[in-house]
TrEMBL record:
<protein>
    <submittedName>
        <fullName>NUDIX hydrolase</fullName>
    </submittedName>
</protein>
<dbReference type="InterPro" id="IPR000086">
    <property type="entry name" value="NUDIX_hydrolase_dom"/>
</dbReference>
<dbReference type="GO" id="GO:0016787">
    <property type="term" value="F:hydrolase activity"/>
</dbReference>
<keyword id="KW-0378">Hydrolase</keyword>
<dbReference type="Pfam" id="PF00293">
    <property type="entry name" value="NUDIX"/>
</dbReference>
<dbReference type="InterPro" id="IPR015797">
    <property type="entry name" value="NUDIX_hydrolase-like_dom_sf"/>
</dbReference>
<feature type="domain" description="Nudix hydrolase">
    <location>
        <begin position="3"/>
        <end position="129"/>
    </location>
</feature>
Length: 134
């Protein structure tokens, strides 16, 4: 099984809704972020990916560590991801850029949908439900 190292972020709005993204030619919604390139830190990779995907620049001080999780990759067969996940507040609107096809706001307290990436279903949403109870 192949292992990918990624960095991702839970961007929450004022109502504690979570920003999800869907990449072009894929079905699963996931957190913004992406693969950590050789020589990059998790935070460096995340800041690069946020700029590419959402034209969003966040200071590292705005990113709090949520946890490190492993899960099956949503869009790559026989692949697992090792993900460093951060948490941040989003204070202004963003638009899909780069390879993104769609943005969606998800209520972490609401039901999971079949189109959520395994990382979200297995680890991130349960963690957020614990942090932000209904």
């Amino acid at each position: 099984m192949k292992l990918l190292r990624i960095a991702a972020v839970c961007l929450l709005d004022a109502s504690n809704h979570l920003l999800l993204v869907r990449k072009r030619d894929t079905r699963a919604f996931m957190l913004p972020g992406g693969k950590i390139e050789p020589g990059e830190t998790s935070l460096g990779a995340l800041r690069r990916e946020l700029q590419e995907e959402l034209q969003l620049s966040l200071d590292e001080s705005a990113l709090l560590a949520l946890g490190r999780f492993r899960a099956p990759a949503a869009n790559e067969p026989a692949t697992e991801i090792d993900s460093q996940v951060f948490l941040a507040r989003l204070t202004h609107p963003v638009q899909a850029g780069a390879e993104l096809a769609e943005l969606r706001w998800h209520d972490p307290q609401g039901p999971d949908t079949a189109d959520l990436a395994p990382l979200l279903r297995l680890h991130v949403l349960p963690s957020l439900r614990h942090l932000t109870p209904g």
